[in-house]
Amino acid sequence: MLDLLGGVRIELLDPRGQPWLVRGDNWTGVLRAAALASGVEHVAWLHRFLARLAETEFPAPRPLAVLDGASIVVVEDAVWEMVSFLPGQLLNWNCRVPLGSAGALLARFHQASLTISPREQRPGALPMELCRPTSEASLAERFQRDLVDLGHQSSIRCVVHGDATQANMLVADRARAATALIDFNLAHLGPPESDISFALWVAGRLEQPAITLDTGRVRDFVAGYHRVRPLGVWAVRAIPLYLVGRGLQMHVRLERRGVRDETQSKRLHWLDENRRSLEDAVASALAQAPGADGDAVRETD
């Protein structure tokens, strides 16, 4: 791999082993590796999307063709990829940055994504309609029925980030708002509202270890999103239901690794049991945000 890069400087961005920060003469990139079993096309799909996203000027990584003239290469049974490095500090739990700005950034991403998304699903993706963990079989079956009742299959689709939490948002120096979105490893086609739920899985908590969501944080994030990309009343039911779906997704991934996580199980059941209060929080966000349109309808294909 180093032979392909030539004279560069490399340092770890994560003490667990990757990704790596790579500095060339006139570029700075982020290098990642994944097992070949995950599929080259899985990464290629993402790089095609990121290349198109770069044309919209939305602040996100773009593919860097510095791996022997490509942004993706297979070396020693691994798929290696290089994307551009974006400067800034991780948002995380920065209390100086209003949570609504994180929602607003996600809304701007969806505005761009809706104009450039492919029609084909990402190879290896795990959309909600496939989330049926055996450890939560009864809840999963009820969730799938609720998806049908919601009209999930007829909802508009675009490439969603899949993990737009504070750990994947950047804040530029001295900024008081989220300014860039990084790490699209879980991106796939889905309803934009589901991406709000994926973000709230962490952003809606008062602290990382919490089991429950804070309805005030849910309201603030959704209101920030709604100010940029107005949501219809359909979102009131969809966002809390998709939060349950996020929990089921995590259970599927845990089962594939042969792992049981009691914390994730408690979170899933809390979300399922508190959907009504979360619906109230979303409805409150849509009512309070400037320009809210309580009579808006759900977008469909």
Along the chain, the helix and strand elements come as HEEEHEEEHHEEEEHHHHH
What global shape is seen? Answer: globular
Number of strands: 10
Output the CATH class name of the largest domain.
Alpha Beta
From the coordinates shown, what is the CATH architecture of the largest domain?
A: Alpha-Beta Complex
Q: Looking across the biggest beta sheet, what order are the strands in? A: 1-2-3-5-4
In the residues, how many domains can be counted? 2
Integer average pLDDT = 92
User: What is the radius of gyration computed over CA atoms, rounded to a whole number of angstroms?
Assistant: 19 Å
Strand content: 5-15%
End-to-end separation in angstroms reads 43 Å
Low-confidence stretches: 292-301
CATH topology of the largest domain: Aminoglycoside 3'-phosphotransferase, Chain: A, domain 2
Largest sheet: 5 strands, antiparallel
* Share of helix, binned: 40-55%
Helix/strand/pairing category: alpha+beta
Q: What is the CATH H-level superfamily of the largest domain?
A: Aminoglycoside phosphotransferase (APH), C-terminal lobe
Main attributes?
about 300 residues, alpha+beta, Phosphorylase Kinase, domain 1, Aminoglycoside 3'-phosphotransferase, Chain: A, domain 2, 2 domains, five-stranded antiparallel beta sheet, three-stranded antiparallel beta sheet, 9 helices, globular, disordered C terminus
